[in-house]
Each structure stands twice: as structure tokens, then as C-alpha cells.
Amino acid sequence: MPETDPDRPARVAVLDIGKTNVKLNVVATDGTLIETASCPNPVLPGPPYRHHDVATLEAWIFEHLAGYARSHPLAGLVTTGHGAGGVLVGERTLAAPMMDYEQPCPEAVTALYRTLAGTYAERGSAILHGATHIARQGLWLETEYPDLFAEGRAFLAMPQYWAWRFSGVAASEYTSIAAQSHLWDVANRRPTPIVAARGWQRLLPPFVPAFAPVGLIRPDLAARLGLPETFEIFCGVHDSSVNFYRYQAAGLKDFTLVSTGTWIVGLSDACPVSALREDLGMTMNADVHGRPVAGALTMGGREFALIAGPAREGEAAASDPAILARLVADGILALPSFGDEDGLVPGSARRGRIVGADGTEPTLSAAERRALAVLYTALLTDLMLDALEATGLIVLDGSFVRDPAFAGLIAAFRPDADVRFNLDTYGVASGAGLLAGHRSRTAPAALALEAAVPLALPGLAAYRAAWRAAAADARTPSIPSPPETAR
């Protein structure tokens, strides 16, 4: 076992489970990333339905965790993941395979679910596509696979499944169950109506804070993996919420965080619950203490790719200000939405198009399309910030801030706000490491934020107004489907 240096922060393993990829990291409790490994998140076609290959993933996790144990003095494990993974467990094993939430749900199940799911205020989000929502997955299991469902002893969000697998202790956790599971009424701190209607109370174990251990590692796993018997298994946490926690740990409050990547995700502890709108896809999340956090999200990364086209080798990471200025001066607009979701513009799905000042689609170079994608995603983010009533401190992070123009555009759109950005690219892992140090932290965590300098583009305010007016028109059926070149 590697020796522990008392002058250095403790180290923990952070298991970060995404829909497509999984990472296993070594992170210090001051948030420093030390080592990382990744693999695809395997999915099997069935039977009984499309599901995650948990056994294969477990073998990979065990192999790499054992390797880390030989190289690092690990003190514990924190698991984080997306909010659409529910796991029904029995006494010692899975009672049913973990569903892939992107598969279609039987129409009869969804129809029944809509009658049971409660109001938007109770659920905390709209009813989304496929098999999204742990509550809907539970209803699918209960109605279509009653024998499997009867074997269930606890219905866990994905981070808590891995805590259970390593410790044998079943627990619920605020951020995970609040992440559009439809099992928890965040504002009132109680289960949603479907839980009582279906008698699922027995499947929801007691709550444990994300920053607290549910227990120690099982002795057999400690011996198998070469970990100390004092190795702590933390309850685990929702991925976007632990990135938000990273800033809370640094002492930030009354702020709005926008994390960018495949999804643009906004979270705010300053936005009132009354501002949430179902038609804009807004969500009610929770922080690690169970307090309400307003959310909004849109698939900005996918929209970016559909406008910009595939990345090219050697392509500049930063937009050319001259190209941005020319697009603005010429009034060339990318209008929502290019993907299958409405996002922040209701009724706009698959209506995305690129238009010039004369109403026709201009011919654009690859660099121009990429710059237009930056303008478009900044304008989407600006809409999101309006929805979240963000007027004070705004923090931007994720892949989009690698292009200085993105933060500069947000600062230009919102001159009265304090817009800052963080260039770190491992926010979830860093937040999870800080979470493990929550109980012993005596001062705010270190955080390096840079002030965004407003991008000075002549005519930008008029361009923003024109885009907003045209985007609103995208809600009407008169807007034609986008040409193939714009998809």
C-alpha cells in the first residue's frame, strides 16, 4: 500500500459515469486531478430490453481501481453520473438490468405514466423522451416485468447503485433523485405522487448527503482490490450538481453557472422557483444539501456541430474576430433548432436554418460556419440566462470557453452582469474530489476565475435583437424545414 504524505491532501477515486463514456479518476480532496482512465459505457440490446452491461463495466472498474490502489494512497470512492439511470437491486444483486434511457418506452407505459407523474411543479421537469426518468423506468418494470420488479428491495439512482455495490448499503441522495427522476418533489422535500400511488415507498431508502460515506468498503472487495478496510464509500452525486458544488465549495453563492459541451446546462441558486417554465425545458434540481437549484438545458453542442460541420484537423480553436464582425455586419443568422429538440425555443425542433439579410441561405466557408456556430450558441446561452433571471455573477465553463469569443459574446450581451469563466476541463472530477473533503474543509476551496472581456463588434446589439425576433418566428409552422446542407 502506498504511504500517505500527511502534508498532502488525501486522494480519492472518482467514478464518473456518462451515457457514452466512463472515467475513473484519482483526485485530491483539494480538487486536483492526478490520474484518469476511460472506457466506453457498454450497452446490450436485450433481452429483456436494451440495457447497460453493468458486469463488463464492473470488471473494468475493478481492474483499474486495483491498479490505482497500487500507486496511490486512496482514502475513498465518490461516484457521479447522469440523472437518467435507475437501478433496481435485490438483496445482493441486480433485480433487473439497468435500462438504457434512450430507447423508446412502450406507448401504454408512457400513457399510464402521464396520468401518475404529477404536476410539473411536483416532478421538477417536463416529461422527456424515451425511457428518461427513473420513475418511468420503474413503472415500465412494474407493469411489463412484474416478476423482476417483485425481487426489488431498493430503487437507486446510478451513483447510489455503485455505493451499494461497494459497501452493501442502500441510500437515497438529494442531487441524484432531484435530477429529473420524477421521484422527488424538491421544493417540498417529499416523494412525488407516483411513489404513493404505486406503493414504492419501500423502494426509497433513507437519505444520506452526497458528501457523507454510506459506509466502508466490503471486506471481500477490499481484499480483492488491495484497498484498506478503512476505505470510505461516499453516497455519490449527480454530475452537473457536483460541478455546481465546486463553485459553492469556493464560497460562491447567488450565482448562475453555465456548463458547456454536448449539453449547455445552466444552474442557478439565485433564480426563484416561480420563474421555472415547463415549455422552456427548465428543471428543478437540488444542491448537495437538498436545497432547490433552478436549471435549464439545451443540446447546444449538437446544435454547434450541425451548424459548423465536422471538425477539421488543424482547425483553429479560436474564432477569427474579423469573420465574426463580417457575419454580424451582413446579418447572417443561424435560427433554431437544428436538432430534434425544441430547446429554449418552443416549437422550433427541426426548423433550424441559416439565412442572410435577403432571406436566402448564403454560401459560407468552413471558418464562417464555425464562427456562426459560436454566435448561435452564445445567443442560445443568452436566452438561457434570461430564463434563469441571471443578473449578477455568471460563471461559464466547459468546452465552449476554449474559444475566447464565446465568453466575450456573453459579456457583450449582458453588460450589467459579472461574467467570468473557468478554463479547467475537469469540473465534475474536481467537484467530486472537493466533495470528499467537505467534512474537513475549514476555508473556501481555491478557484481561478477570469473576467470575460466584452467582445466589441459593431452592430452586435442590433444583430442580437434581429436574431431574437427571427427565432421567435421559428415557433410558427410557416418556417420551412431546414435544407440538408444546414442540418
Automatic annotation (TrEMBL):
Tell me which residues make up the Carbohydrate kinase FGGY N-terminal domain. 14-241
Recite the UniProt keywords alphabetically: Kinase, Transferase
- Tell me where in this chain the Carbohydrate kinase FGGY C-terminal domain is found: 253-437
Instruction: Write out the GO MF terms.
Output: kinase activity
Keyword Oxidoreductase listed? The answer is no
Look up the record and give one Gene Ontology term from the biological process aspect: carbohydrate metabolic process
Enumerate the InterPro entries for this protein.
Answer: ATPase_NBD, FGGY_C_2, FGGY_N
Source organism (scientific name): Segnochrobactrum spirostomi
**What Pfam families does the record point to?**
FGGY_C_2, FGGY_N
| UniProt protein name | Carbohydrate kinase
